Fold these 2 entries.
Entry 1:
Amino acid sequence: MTHKQISTVLKSVSKPGRYIGNEFKQIIKNKDEVDVRFAFCFPDTYEIGMSNLGLRILYNTLNSDSYIWCERVYAPWIDMDAKMREHNIPLTAMESGDELTKFDFVAFTLQYELCYTTALHMIKISGIPLLSADRNDSDPIILGGGPCAYNAEPLADFFDAFSIGEGEEALNEACALMRDMKRDGSYNRRDFLHRLAKIEGFYVPSLYTIEYNEDNTIRAYTPVHDDIPTKIKKRIIADMDSAKFPDSFVMPYIETVHDRIMLEVYRGCIRGCRFCQAGMVYRPIREKSPETLCRQAKCLYENTGYDEISLVSLSISDYSRLDELTESLLEWTDDEKVNLSLPSLRIDSFSKELMDRVSSVRTGGLTFAPEAGTQRLRDVINKNVTEEDLMRAVNIAFESGKTNVKLYFMEGLPTETLDDVAGIADLAKKVVNAFYKNPKRNKSRGVSVTVSVACFVPKPFTPFQWEAQDSMEMLVEKQKHLRDCITDRKITYNWHDARVSFLETVFARGDRRLGKALLLAADMDVMFDAWDECFDFDRWMEIFESADIDPKFYTRAFALDEVLPWDIIDCGVTKQYLLRERERAYAEKTTPSCKENCNGCGANKLGGKNRWCK
């Protein structure tokens, strides 16, 4: 139901379909018959949020309980935001059109550090007090979750609580607590948050005090109550086959980023890439059976009509029963003309059989991620792929008629030298040469190799969490050096803005003191920092200066024995394991995958039905 005031401005904004609601398969309940109202917010545009699988799963899970009504909220784009402020229109939910002040929970999934300002702007334009300390019993509980919640400290002043880990069970438990306290008349904000902090997986920042050392590092976290944990352990879903999964999706009226069925195959990763946060925090590995996946895929196809199924995981080629799964799906998808997509194939797992079987590989260009230009540096980051793996994969592609290849790399990795940077150009040139040396290539067209290079960001809960980020000047120097090394016009070079990566690192590794800067940014209506047209680096430098914050404090090398802002969280992987992996990185030693050997990361203590942890 579109808010009646919103409908008056729809003709004056781009893509009004972002705001009208009333989509097919949306869930409508009688708000007078539910106990708990839950607004699930995605701090980006509708077409990005509608493509997020996590939101789809939790929307279904929360609404499976009859006493909960979960509704969706997306950030209005710049033109709509201006109209809303001009006409004093508050932010509202898609399903009911109600203002967010009428909800019990207003929850945000935090997928990327540069969405923080958008999340705060959404709170601000909803009419809810921005600071947690300013809210009273009539205000909603502001809840955060998602990968960025593993270091929630920059947002600690604004969010009442954070759900750490997987939310399918935890969020329903929080709603049950809200229902019970409302029913027996005992609800008040203070007592609710105290009781919530005792539920495993919930972090309530206001219930922990922080002491700092003279050098501005953290001395200690201290809980203000004796009955809440000193460390918050993340939640996981133990058995993926029995986990709730949607049998239909809300169907958008406009094109979204991913208009397809997204089928979650497994969680976790058997690899141990030392730069990858997701590969660490999503452990332990838990797979769904092919039988469950085929049943879910068929159900979603019948209920949505999408003609593409994307098999989703961190590394789909590491699924232990991939051949069995694809064969079972192809038994009916070929007849129904439904395409199969495998978006996360590794170089060392690419094969002719997959090319023949999977439509997303058969059509269009191919993308591979060597990550580093030399074998030495690939060993440092534990990528566990070789130049030979890449050449084998591209030659399979060229023999099948492919002429376009994309290669993803990172610059600024620990121990990287200019020789490693030049190695990116050398590797791309070898791919070009491999095309012309291949007698079975498509001789009617030339080859095109695109090199895309991101800047390394040291993330929490990785073996590189202690590392300094290269200065922006050094990153720019490396980008220019690579540009000079690429002399073949068949190679296209794209690179990431070092200033964006700098800010990402600041908020990825920041502490509560960054709240002062975020508050200033909210006062200035800063939002959509993840969008090039909205990102303003100079403005951020002015904000940090006004807040008396040196952002480089958060991009420096952290001491191995200092208390880290995220040490309050237990993600399952131990700090001892991360330190061992850091040592192996500097020794240029690789670590085998979980499939080959259990490396004792510690995630097995979380339980879960998996075949890898010992």
Entry 2:
Amino acid sequence: MYKTHGCGDLRAEHVGQRVELAGWVNRRRDHGGLTFVDLRDRSGVVQTVSNPELSQEAHAIAEQVRSEWVLHIVGEVRVRPEGMANPNLPTGEVEVEIQELEVLNQAKTPPFKINEESEVDEMVRLKYRYLDLRRERMQRNLELRYNVIKFIRDELGQRGFWEIETPILFKATPEGARDYLVPSRLYPGEAYALPQSPQQLKQLLMVAGVERYFQIARCFRDEDQRGDRQPEFTQLDIEMSFVEREDVMELLEGVYSSLIEKLFPGRPVSVVPWPRLTYQESMDRFGSDRPDLRFGMELVNITDLAEGSGFKIFEGAVEAGGEVRGINCVGCGHFSRREIDELTEMIKPFGAKGLAYLALQESGEPRSSFAKFLPSDRLDAVIKRLDANPGDLLLFVAGERDIVLESLSRLRAHLGERLELYDPDALSFCWVIDFPLVQWDAEGQRWDPSHHLFTAPMPEDLSLLDSDPGKARGLQYDLVLNGEETAGGSIRIHDRGLQEKIFELIGLDLDTARERFGHMLTAFEYGTPPHGGVASGLDRLCMILAKEPNIREVIAFPKNQAARDVMAGAPSEIEPKQLEELHLRIVE
């Protein structure tokens, strides 16, 4: 071993010990004949000092080293001279007096500073990801991710779960996003698919009698990228037999509550049991099925007050079957017209045609884009419904329900962050339940599953599958953390007849269904237990726990937002010989 201790592990109790260290030069400084080299490894940084009176040879080398050179140092730990301790460094009480110094490897000047946090273009960071990962923040993120996954493995093992790996090469069975396909060399014209999730396989493990399964699963989806998506990602996959919806939810509550208590003590977290909001309630109150409960500013429906109000924009929305809703920005009555116009432009991409406002001045005189059109009693009713006081700013959107909800939800999230309405350390969990089982796709003229096609309907809604499918609810549940969906699951269908009925409902003819899912349908005829599960996105969970803006910051080697690996240059062109072996040709 090149080292007896980590650089960041040395403390006062090590004074007088001879130690060996190895790591990277964090910084070198020359002071009056002495050369100081701050040496860094993943455990931290320690100051080492070279004195020519102790070793002329080591000192000569120390004078030549530069940032990011890799060194091996042998020396003695001593207390720093009086007044020279560094209280901001865990090793700040001590230093290592260099007795022997060896250069293990030199380094070119890095394209960005590694020894300090600074703004670096993300494309440069991803191109030199191996250097980016040396930085302290990224090392912390990698350690956080490791600790989270290790805790989950240990916790589920203690709760009687078996970790079981499922295939990466599987059958192409489109479940929403596009599959990544792997052409077969042995079977011309045929291909494997990379799994979007182990959904079918974990259900088959329940048929197999496993009862409690989990996996830290790699999943692949060929979909448009955004800050919380990657072509390949990692999820905690859980499936349980002989359970009902509440059992699965309580399990994940227990695991994640324990995780935060153990690994993130002191961070404010929702008290178990976490709030349960129905899908309808979540949409009505927050305009989203991913509500951020760290702050208020809930949506308020004033459609009834808008009808016949005298304000044509409000009246027109109601007459067209739409809605009018608003939010109360407490204490923002001072917002200028320019600031309100900026908010209006922000929500236009979501379909909103405008943003009506009512600023309640401290003087009592309102400043508004529409107040003059409303009778005083109607205006007073609007103010009362939004529980507004002088100094508040009321913002309204009118139009189709979906547009109103989406626009105000985005506006609420923006203002929550801008106005610092929540504790950035807070971890606010909630469950959203009672989702619609299916949603109507007007373009395709068919019903689509709102979750996936193996989700069981609520028993009391079974008759609606024939009479009014849009009103049927699924035994589905989503876990939301700080406005981000971090897990989703459901109680599954375990009866072949019901599964075939769902296939038929969503327009999947039985011949196609049997070709794609025949292995599951057959399995359901051999004694399948009631079962359900949940999948939790570990990248997204770690992103929130690390307080990072996107999941690329907690993945060692991510793709960029165009789904490219800019470090290795993937995807790349295929050699003609490989194409020939796979019986493929490129068609321009």
